[in-house]
Amino acid sequence: MRELLRLLAEDASGSELARVAGEDAVARDLALRIRAGIDASKKRETELTALVEVARELASASDPSGVLDTIVHRARTLVGADVSYLTLYDEARGDTYMRATDGSLSAAFQQLRVPLGAGLGGLVASTRRPYWTTDYPSDQRFHHTGPIDHAVGDEGLVAICGTPLIVDEAFVGVLFASNRTARPFSREEVLLLGSLAALAAVTIVQVRAAAETAAALDAVSLAHAGVEHAAAAHDRFADIVLSGGDVDAVAAALAELLGVWVVLVDAVGNELAVAGCHAGTAVPWRESLSGRLARAGDCWVVAVTAKGERLGALVIGGVDDLSAADQRIVERAAVVTALVLLFRRQAAEQSQRAQADLLTDVLSGSGDVPALTERLRLLAPGRVHDHFVVAVCRGDHSAVRARLSAPVADKLVLSGSYAGDLVLLLARTDAVAAARDLVEVAKRAAVTIAVVGPARWGEALVDAHRQATRLVTTMVRLGRCNESATPDDLGVAGLVGASEIDVQAHVQHVLGAVIEYDAQRGTDLVGTLHAYFAAGQSPTRAATELHIHPNTVQQRLERVGALLGAEWQSPERSLNLQVALQLHQAVRG
């Protein structure tokens, strides 16, 4: 057995392990199972690493044809297929057509068009679901047609797996991996091809958008061309957009091209980007701006608009006069800025939709946990943790995200609407601290927030969300609106709605300041509170019970007020204190 362990540590092959095990069948089988597990883990690690590399390649690609070639080549390599190919959806003709192949030899196959519902690819396209077959020519699940069967036969394909390319419920095309001999496709291979298809679909849409942006910029350039300086500005702006640059890059480029300072403000005058030295100059802003550059005191101002919506304004200063060509450059920069702002908004909306979809799948408890975890890694890289805090926001939560403070926003992993509420998933382990950080958000956004946790990803998170939903309902019913609270903050009401009760944590939350004071100074404020409530909140009767002077009781109660707050004797607070005192006594025995 020691020799087998040594060989496993040295990454020995299965045959070597079997040889050393000899006739010991139990040891041989155990060693081979361990070897298989190690190989499977390495294979999964290799696949995940490859997916990350694919994502990087696709993110850096700007040429549509190059993107498609990368996709099919990677699909063939990762799945270990003989041929990989990709069809794109032709909305005008209502079918899909072959767009890129890797490993294909047949010209007929490379020119194939597939109607919706026809063949395996047509079935994938019409149902938006993956399909695979060990032996396509003899598989009668699919609608065989002469052109498709001829092309598949000419290529010599037998085993085929196809998965749809979908972005925001929009069908883009189908990605295939196939072999020229009969072979099954494992569930892991289908999931791997699906992950690659998801990356590919998003990249294709982004590249198309970038191409459309480039076309729009070309149209703007042609309309105002004629000056070499303007052409250089156009190229600079185009590079910024196609490389994924933000409004800061546009402002910096404009400042450098014209030797001016630039300030970009939003629709209400808040600064979004600053370039050059404007030395704190007051930025002019008025609602009557148009898409043409206009003089405003010592500055020049042009509106940034898209589809009739005012997104903001570009303000130019540090120059006495601008030539007609330079004015057109500023106006062109305003158009580019509008495009970049729209892209930023669309990216944020897509991210929020993807987060909301994942959150729905997680909180409904209907998804496969490993698959959900993988989606989380793709959506929130670097923010996957062991424990999460759930915050359920009830009310008009449209302004909540914009009002999140840095301690909350920095730890926000997922957010989205679920069952009418806004749910925030935070990578934190302290629900009390999270609730404290959300207090101002609740007040300023006028929402009621229930915070529960920490909970692990999976079923525990589902339970935490259910508890938070019950808690926020209780808060609204009790009139605790526009607040942020944990179950312990609601005292008895919070305990009633909790699925599990941590007695010591609750007692610490309610009475912790008093207990710690007693421990540090050797006093007995806790005992005084017991006597005070037992005496019907009469200091005189409590003094008799404790055999001390009533003034001493009054002084102790004033100390309790200093520790717990002036409202500690209100009906709700006193009830919660009495329950906590009883629990404390029960825990201490």
Condensed summary:
The protein has 589 residues and is an alpha+beta fold. It has helices spanning 2-9, 14-21, 25-60, 64-79, 107-110, 119-127, 146-155, 187-223, 228-242, 247-258, 324-364, 369-379, 406-409, 431-437, 439-445, 459-477, 492-497, 503-521, 525-534, 539-546, 550-564, 571-588; strands at 83-90, 95-102, 113-115, 131-133, 159-167, 170-179, 261-266, 271-275, 294-296, 299-306, 309-317, 387-394, 412-418, 421-426, 448-456, 484-485.
Give me the Rg, rounded: 33 Å
Strand content: 15-25%
Q: Give the overall pLDDT as a whole number.
A: 78
Number of helical segments with 4 or more residues: 22
Terminal CA distance: 52 Å
As a percent range, the share of helical residues equals: 40-55%
Structural class: alpha+beta
Strand order of the largest sheet: 3-2-1-6-5-4
For the sheet with most strands, the description reads: 6 strands, antiparallel
| Low-pLDDT segments | none
Tell me the total number of β-strands: 16
Any idea what the shape is? flat
Descriptive overview:
There is one protein chain. The protein is an alpha+beta fold and 589 residues long. 54% of the residues lie in helices and 18% in strands. The protein has 22 helices and 16 strands. It has helices at residues 2-9, 14-21, 25-60, 64-79, 107-110, 119-127, 146-155, 187-223, 228-242, 247-258, 324-364, 369-379, 406-409, 431-437, 439-445, 459-477, 492-497, 503-521, 525-534, 539-546, 550-564, 571-588, and strands at residues 83-90, 95-102, 113-115, 131-133, 159-167, 170-179, 261-266, 271-275, 294-296, 299-306, 309-317, 387-394, 412-418, 421-426, 448-456, 484-485. Strands 3-2-1-6-5-4 form a six-stranded antiparallel beta sheet, with helices on both faces. Strands 8-7-11-10-9 form a five-stranded antiparallel beta sheet, with helices on one face. A five-stranded mixed beta sheet has the order 13-14-12-15-16. The radius of gyration is 33 Å and the shape is flat. The relative contact order is 0.04. The model has no long low-confidence stretch (mean pLDDT 78).
